């Protein structure tokens, strides 16, 4: 069925020309004949430029949010969903008919749905590399799956260990390793998180939220050790479809 009305959607982030979302939604609108629907990148250097976008963009109905604004955007919103409140990170914004901004998190949903088929009974604990906005959705999903997790950061804190604290025993205890950092994203494809890959085994899952390149150095290193690997593409597709559902309800 052809939809005829002007509606605009977009992605909020910094240096996002590589983005998956624009291609995904543009193709969707063409294929499903949503005439007058467009999707564009709102590439801003500072979050305080965000109100200008809202003020000056007519017919804007919804936004996806990516690095580095998933947490920084929250003070600019009128309301958060219950899950976004718990997660304390937003990657989807709905603009209501009254012009109010409501924040949601669909990252956790996309991650949960893409990880679940890989899980076996011994996958009880996960290491989350990174503590940024993306890591929060991951942590929430793991919680819902009943999987314990520990954050790994460059500096140890109350909530995280640092990379130097990872030893062979860590990898025996934690069978899922998730990269939620941007390390290894194109064009810096040779970079990877600084972990001792030699201790990974075929009992491990290595999951990278990055989807470009499809096989990051992190995943290549894990694959060499026999670990099961997964990139972030399915997660992105699932979270995008969830965002579409939110914008249309």
UniProtKB/TrEMBL annotation:
Pfam families in UniProt: Shikimate_dh_N
Pathway: Metabolic intermediate biosynthesis; chorismate biosynthesis; chorismate from D-erythrose 4-phosphate and phosphoenolpyruvate: step 4/7
Alphabetized SUPFAM superfamilies for the sequence: Aminoacid dehydrogenase-like, N-terminal domain (SSF53223), NAD(P)-binding Rossmann-fold domains (SSF51735)
Stretches assigned to the Shikimate dehydrogenase substrate binding N-terminal domain: 11-93
Keywords, comma-separated and alphabetical: Amino-acid biosynthesis, Aromatic amino acid biosynthesis, Oxidoreductase
InterPro entries from the UniProt entry: Aminoacid_DH-like_N_sf, NAD(P)-bd_dom_sf, Shikimate_DH-bd_N, Shikimate_DH_fam
UniProt protein name: Shikimate dehydrogenase
């Amino acid at each position: 069925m052809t939809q005829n009305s002007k509606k605009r959607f977009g992605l909020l982030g910094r240096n996002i020309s590589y983005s998956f979302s624009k291609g995904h939604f543009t193709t969707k609108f063409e294929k499903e004949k949503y005439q007058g629907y467009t999707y564009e990148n709102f590439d801003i250097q500072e979050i305080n430029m965000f109100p200008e976008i809202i003020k000056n963009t007519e017919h804007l109905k919804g936004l996806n949010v990516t690095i580095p604004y998933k947490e920084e955007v929250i003070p600019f919103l009128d309301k958060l969903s219950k899950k976004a409140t718990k997660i304390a990170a937003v990657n989807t914004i709905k603009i209501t008919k009254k012009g109010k901004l409501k924040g949601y998190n669909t990252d956790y949903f996309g991650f949960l749905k893409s990880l679940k088929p890989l899980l076996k009974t011994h996958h009880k604990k996960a290491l989350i590399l990174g503590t940024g906005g993306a890591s929060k959705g991951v942590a929430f999903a793991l919680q819902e799956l009943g999987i314990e997790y520990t954050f790994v950061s460059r500096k140890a804190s109350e909530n995280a260990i640092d990379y130097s604290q990872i030893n062979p025993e860590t990898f025996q205890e934690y069978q899922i390793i998730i990269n939620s950092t941007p390390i290894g994203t194109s064009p810096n494809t040779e970079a990877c998180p600084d972990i001792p890959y030699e201790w990974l085994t075929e009992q491990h899952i290595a999951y990278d939220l990055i989807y470009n390149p499809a096989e990051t150095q992190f995943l290549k290193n894990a694959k060499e050790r026999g670990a099961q690997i997964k990139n972030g593409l399915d997660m992105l597709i699932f979270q995008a479809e969830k965002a579409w559902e939110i914008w249309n309800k």
